[in-house]
């Protein structure tokens, strides 16, 4: 937690990953993020992983440092309360449909300078999820050894969309500061996916070659990079991106003569050309693989570290969670009293600002924990009016 | 391209994916982003995919809408010019080492309110890349059918880091507007990766269960979602995240009786519980798989679309590039005169702002294309002084 965004308040009405991470990133940088959910929780409130008591470990991590207002969003009165919260606040992040009761036109009726950042599925408003835009742009057909497509497990498109949405919110705030005008920023998962294919040169590549890139398993395209297995059976990823790393890798593996012989035989120099190292991988990978297979991981890791060579062993998520450098001793993590009651290291902002004190990560709120406070403060409702809304089932409290 | 960030100027000294995408996202939202590179190009200037003339289709897409200044960054004079450009500009995005000639302390000597966003590998400054942080946090061990780990092809950590870096730049600018103070925001790939594991509930999950999640192949954890194959051999991903989608999927596949029988047999109701659908996937997937295998993709797609069911067929990147809805007819794409000379649809901002006119995507600059203009305007150098720097090999021009 850092206080870079103090003074910014955002209403979030969302579920799943993309839109909630936008709110999370804003909250972890100091914005007040008020998540408004159906009383009892929205469609993501019990999403797995869950505890034995069915508390979602997913939900309580994606919603840290936010406040929670619970409303009956199926009722006209609950919907009006959410609309009014958005209007009074002026900043809104959502993945609700573009043309429903949370349409920009409806919300801006009472707040001309409203900023809405709307995460969408397909750009035309039809539904899509991370896992369906992913296979529609081709990555599963390029992943793994083949021939079957392999889905990613990390919801990469959701995450990229969430971070981009947080960025877009601040860009829109900056624009409004100069013009006074509100606007809606729509970010469809499908455009993030196909736009990223384009940004990485993928559209250009397939149209230039007229063909799909061949599957490469765990090798990286266009450079020297692959998984290898050490003498003691540790699988490790090694990637070379600079001439110095290449030279140091050859030295660390004592392959000077072998590589020089290969260069002479093929009439090339690998010293400064990623592409040549890739083109001649039929000879290079067996050579390096044999040298790596002859030594222990500890021995190699020390030599690689000394040479600034980028490498890392494959491990499981449980191994990672128990790595002190990554988690227990990492200032990004701290303690927080989670709604589930289960104690574990809680993450704060990815970013570190050396000039500022990092504040402890905050827990996610219980559903409706801040309903009374926010309805009073933001909408000016009296305690009697709020009590009546609670009694009628329009408002929930944590 | 949108003009949300007009008036913001950023120096970018970077390579590969994460830091350049931060600059790209800022530029596509209207910031002036001046990429400073080694004369002739940095370490990513020839990165694959490349044309037959060795022009990088990767580089020219990750650097659209930027300006380019080329300097000899190996020389003291070239380094001083970059330092001065950063100081005069006040905003800097980089993945150069934290403790070199571009350290925050050095740069802030002449510019106390400097904002630097620094993408790093490991938080301690040691080198890491997308493909090595990925296997260190466990995702490849969860991906695919097993038993071998499967690397992702999409550089997801780089992309997330880049978007988060663009967000962090705007957050820091907003903070500075209130305090007048500069700061450095450090974003290590390793913290983005382990922090994301935490945000998605992964740290909590493995510490709660004491075990790693089993591999699920192309199935999604904790809900009904998997790839299926239609009667005409189309592999399609189907994911259910709402009760309505579940009900409509059953109707579309005419499985009302079969699902009711299974619910009776097992004493459960799948209507509102993602977790139960996941727990009973041993029975549900064969049932749905058989119903899907009996019908054509066109028939099913029409029924699914009518029911708001989230689905999409697997296809290749070439298929995606040739899909008019995704590319040729998508307003995100437009024409741009690329440095490679190859014409293809160029992507603009992922975001769409209905209230504003979208401007055409811009091409990437040639190396050094803007050296003279920027050195004159930003540093106040005379044309004679610039000519001397070009003659001495300190400055390059495109």
Task: Provide key terms for this protein.
homodimer; 398 residues; alpha/beta; seven-stranded mixed sheet; three-stranded antiparallel sheet; 16 helices; 14% strand
List the helices and strands and how they pair.
The structure is a homodimer of 398-residue chains.
Chain A lengths: L8 E5 L4 H11 L3 E7 L20 H4 L4 E5 L4 H14 L1 E4 L9 H5 L6 E6 L9 H8 L18 H24 L3 E6 H11 L2 H8 L14 E6 L5 E6 L2 H10 L3 H11 L7 H6 L1 H13 L3 H10 L3 E4 L3 H5 L11 E2 L11 E2 L23 H9 L3 H9 L3 E2 L2
Parallel strand pairs in A: 1-2, 1-4, 2-3, 4-5, 5-6
Antiparallel strand pairs in A: 3-12, 7-8, 8-9, 10-11
Helix pairs in contact in A: 1-6, 5-7
Strands of the widest sheet of chain A, in order across it, are 6-5-4-1-2-3-12
Oligomer: homodimer
Q: Can you summarize the main beta sheet of chain A?
A: 7 strands, mixed
Low-confidence stretches of chain A: none
Continuous helix count of chain A = 16
Question: What form of chain A results from the Cα inertia axes?
Answer: elongated
Rounded to an integer in angstroms, the radius of gyration calculated over CA atoms of chain A is: 26 Å
Q: What is the chain-wise order of helices and strands of chain A?
A: EHEHEHEHEHHEHHEEHHHHHEHEEHHE
- Amount of helix of chain A: 25-40%
β-sheet strand percentage of chain A = 5-15%
> How far apart lie the N and C ends of chain A?
24 Å
Biggest contact:
A-B, 157 and 157 residues
Mean pLDDT of chain A: 97
